[in-house]
Write a structure and sequence with these properties.
By secondary structure, the chain is α/β, with parallel strands linked by helices. It contains 19 helices and nine strands. The longest helix has 27 residues. This is glutathione transferase.
């Protein structure tokens, strides 16, 4: 494998003659790092990488390394700051626990007055403690981006990490990838400050009861059995992404060859999505929603008020019971298409009247919005699939704008298939039924 991904003799000579020692060093650094990572994955996870995959990651890391070395500072990073209260700003205290290549990172949100308002826990793999701290801060940046927080101070007790962010240079060459990812996010969040605080003063260390009651610890296992192109699987992916929950995803060929694991965890319906938390399976996307929302408290999916929660459930089931099946009838039944299209328009008009803010649940994405992913991402494909343009700006102006806001949200785009991908998945199936 080393022979396959290493530069040829002629390439090395050309690099030397051109005196581009920097390019030579970058490739060598990234190659060594990737081979070490591949060794760890093969030993611990029994995952054997291909040489093409290794080469692609080496070239990508080398490109990031060049950009990171050549980029000048653009975002403000503060080190050695000892303020504990930042008036008018949220304070995110970040810490990570590292053991046997597994990491449990905790992020606690404090109001400027000192009261705690939110918490997030993330589990992931890492090769060393500094990498663990780096990914923990990365998740803090991502959380700020997802929640739309701008006036924020992020507190880390890893002095080396904060100094590296200030200099825009990874303190360890093995961290080039995560560092470049952090710098990209930090450039999008110019008002976010990163502060070093001694471990003894990090508020996470002084709030043991709060952390133990509000964030999940290392050892949790979250799995999702889904299928690319299934709007119901996509809903659960979106909910987990908004919550910041780390999970293992298993792609299912649910039409022809269902896995033994899917049949084991969902013996009644034998369908995706099937969600498994610590070996406890849950089926049906809307039921999974509520379980996720009650288990992980960050970014609430359902409203707090009982009446508003009931309304969110009603409209979510309205989408599943009325809009989804009627849309499928429009696509499949040519003879009844006109009448069915009128019926679907009536249902969409009802939802149009319910939409009063940017999202159905207000200013943030909630249960009805996620349940409506079928409307925002699948209904627009009917124009290409069967020549019927259902969701037009002229007829449904509020739903049309909502669908755009939803589909272009960073968290949604990250886990959802594109319009072209949805068409590619469903067009062969549609042709097979006609």
């Amino acid at each position: 494998m080393i022979k396959e991904v290493s530069p040829s003799k002629e390439e090395l000579i050309a690099l030397f003659k051109s005196r581009d020692i920097g390019k030579f060093n970058r490739f060598g650094i990234c190659l060594i790092d990737e081979l070490w990572t591949a060794r760890n994955r093969a030993f611990h996870d029994r995952v054997n990488p291909s040489w093409r995959g290794v080469l692609a990651r080496v070239q990508g890391a080398a490109s990031c390394l060049l950009t990171a070395w050549d980029t000048r500072p653009n975002s403000e990073v503060i080190q050695h700051a000892h303020k504990e209260i930042y008036l008018g700003k949220l304070v995110l205290f970040v810490d990570a626990a590292f053991k046997e290549l597994r990491v449990a990172a905790g992020i606690v949100v404090s109001e400027s007055e000192g009261s705690f308002s939110d918490a997030l826990a993330v589990n992931f793999d890492a090769n060393q403690p500094l990498e663990a701290e780096s990914w923990a801060v990365f998740h803090a940046f991502r959380w700020c981006q997802t929640r739309g927080w701008r006036q924020v101070v992020i507190v880390s007790d890893c002095q080396l990490l904060v100094q590296g962010l200030q200099a825009r240079m990874a303190p360890d060459w093995r961290l080039t990838g995560v560092f470049w990812s952090m710098l990209e996010l930090l450039d999008d969040l110019p008002e976010v400050e990163v502060v070093w605080m001694p471990r003894s003063r990090n508020q996470i260390q002084n709030t043991g009861d709060f952390v133990s009651n509000n964030i999940k610890i290392m050892g949790e296992e979250v799995k999702l059995y889904g299928a690319r192109g299934s709007p119901f699987s996509d809903r659960v992916n979106i909910a987990l992404k908004l919550k910041g929950v780390e999970y293992k995803y298993f792609e299912e060929n649910y039409l022809n060859n269902k896995s033994t694991s899917l049949l084991k965890y969902n013996p009644i319906h034998k369908k995706v999505p099937t969600f498994v938390h610590n070996e406890k399976p849950i089926a049906e996307s809307l039921v999974i929603f509520e379980y996720i929302d009650e288990t992980w408290k960050t970014h609430p999916i359902l409203p707090q008020h009982p009446y508003e929660r009931a309304q969110a459930r009603f409209w979510s089931y309205f989408i599943d019971d009325k809009i989804v099946p009627t849309t499928l009838k429009v696509v499949k039944a040519k003879e009844e298409r006109k009448n069915t299209l009128e019926e679907l328009s009536e249902y969409l008009e009802m939802l149009e009247k319910e939409l009063k803010d940017k999202y159905v649940g207000g200013e943030g994405i909630g249960m009805v919005d996620i349940a409506g992913n079928f409307i925002a991402q699948w209904i627009p494909t009917t124009k290409e699939l069967v020549g019927v343009d259902i969701l037009t700006e002229a007829k449904f102006p509020k739903l049309y704008q909502w669908s755009w806001d939803f589909a272009t949200h960073p968290a949604i785009k990250e886990v959802s298939p594109s319009k072209e991908e949805i068409i590619a998945i469903f067009k062969p199936r549609l042709n097979a039924t006609n």
